[in-house]
Design a protein that fits this description.
The protein starts with 6 loop residues before the first helix and ends in a 7-residue tail after the last helix. The longest helix is centred in the C-terminal third of the chain and has 31 residues, at 327-357. With 431 residues, it is mainly alpha-helical. The chain is elongated. The chain is built from 17 helices and two strands. The chain has helices at residues 7-17, 26-46, 51-62, 65-75, 82-104, 113-134, 144-161, 180-196, 204-223, 227-243, 248-268, 270-280, 291-302, 314-317, 327-357, 364-388, 406-424, and strands at 170-173, 176-179.
Length: 431
């Protein structure tokens, strides 16, 4: 029997749901309660008890509607993760404050562009987090292939009408400039989360398709002269594939193949070899390939525990992209190792918190979304921090939320909004 056809059961379920404030969970709660009641009715029916009496006993056995409703209200409470939000706000505001200091205290810029644009994008990102928190992320899943295809078509269109600038493709809309290569990294990973949800890795056709999902975005990124994003995308792809039950030996094969390709691409470009040698031995060419490595070394070893403050040596700070790739070096130079330790502590707490909340998410698609996005964050955080202390080659990876970069800051904050949307619906299991 369909228990929902019974008016007594339907009234009981509706009464229980009336105590659950989070309305998005009502459908799942009704399905759960109906399933439990149907099982109980079946038990009594097998004992020869009439259907009406079985229904009455089942409803009684389920418990008082008020008590059950209040318990379910607690279990399905759609609230944001305040800790993640606070940590995000701390990182973003730290970035805005640093842009102000770099611009007005370090004589780095003569205009208001750096600070004003950082503040503008941070404000837009905050609005994005709020809007995406209320948006049901599960609606994205059915459009995953469309997102992937649309991003590929956008790349093709931009290559046809324009050319890469400084290694990236840009779209200008009024006062806003959007780095399409950076944004595509997140869009492709969000798309893959939906594509790989319930993906059957045992089918050969699906393995071929997965190879396309890996190679095509990396091909476009390489055309945009952006090897760094290829590496980040590759790592996030492997994380999502393994999380969706791809066999580990496939991951080993893919890793080996991509390592060979990376070495080949590195050998093709002499400047990449020179950059790597500059990383290994920066003092062998302090005015050439090792210049940035030497500057990072001097900053790290002369700043001490509290740094130089605002009476800093401006010459040391005159390195390319101090506001983006090397903002951590500015922190070390100005605020010392203590300032860097505070920022890194917030970053580690942010990563730990997102990994922690992923454990409470029941929906497999939501888990994949968080896994893909946090893998992007982890790679960027780790690479940038290690790069600024001469433990990793200089790759042009910015420090998420803190470094200057309008579209990157915006897409990072919107990613947090998606994670918050997943967390709000953590008790729901059906996409």
């Amino acid at each position: 029997m369909d228990v929902r056809d019974n008016s007594k059961i339907r009234e009981y379920i509706d009464y229980v749901c009336s105590f659950v404030k989070y309305k998005e969970s009502h459908k799942e709660i009704k399905d759960e309660l109906s399933s439990h009641i149907e099982d109980i009715v079946g038990e009594y029916s097998e004992k020869g008890i009439s259907q009406d009496e079985s229904v009455n006993k089942a409803v009684t056995r389920m418990g008082d509607g008020i008590t059950v409703g209040k318990q379910l209200n607690i279990a399905h409470k759609g609230t944001p993760d305040w800790i993640t939000l606070i940590l995000t706000i701390l990182l973003v505001n730290s970035g805005v404050a640093l842009m102000y200091l770099i611009q007005y205290k370090s004589a780095y810029q003569n205009s208001d562009y750096l600070f004003n644009h950082s503040l503008l994008y941070a404000s837009l990102g905050t609005i994005g987090i709020v809007l995406l928190y209320f948006f049901d992320y599960r609606k994205l899943e059915k459009y995953s292939k469309h997102l992937f295809t649309g991003m590929c078509l956008l790349f093709i269109l931009l290559f046809l009408i324009g050319s890469p600038i400084n290694g990236n493709l840009f779209i200008n809309i009024g006062v806003f400039t959007f780095d399409i290569t950076a944004i595509s990294l997140y869009v492709f990973i969000i798309a893959l989360a939906g594509i790989f949800n319930n993906y059957d890795w045992n089918k050969k056709n699906n393995l071929i398709k997965a190879a396309g999902y890996l190679v095509i975005p990396m091909f476009f990124m390489l055309l945009a002269i952006e090897l760094t994003y290829c590496g980040i995308y590759f790592i996030a792809f492997i994380v999502l594939a393994l999380k969706s039950n791809m066999k580990k030996r496939y991951a080993i094969y893919i890793f080996a193949f991509n390592t060979i390709c990376f070495l080949f691409l590195t050998l093709l470009k002499p400047y990449r070899i020179a950059r790597f040698m500059g990383f290994l031995k920066p003092f062998s060419d302090p005015e050439g390939s090792g210049y940035l490595g030497v500057q990072m070394y001097k900053i790290t070893h002369t700043s001490g525990f509290l740094g130089h403050g605002f009476s800093a040596n401006e010459k040391l700070l005159q390195v390319p992209n101090m506001q983006s790739d090397f903002v951590l070096s500015y922190i070390v130079h100005t605020f010392g190792l203590l300032g860097a330790a505070v920022i890194i502590s917030i970053i580690v707490s942010f990563i730990y918190r997102i990994l922690h909340i992923a454990k409470y998410v029941r929906d497999s698609y939501g888990k994949l979304l968080i896994s893909g996005l946090i893998s992007i964050f982890i790679v960027q955080f780790a690479a940038n921090i290690l790069m600024n202390v001469n433990l990793f080659p200089i790759t042009g990876i910015a420090l998420p939320f803190i470094s200057y970069g309008g579209s990157l800051c915006l897409v990072n904050m919107m990613s947090v909004g998606i994670i918050m949307s997943v967390y709000r619906r953590r008790s729901l299991s059906n996409s």
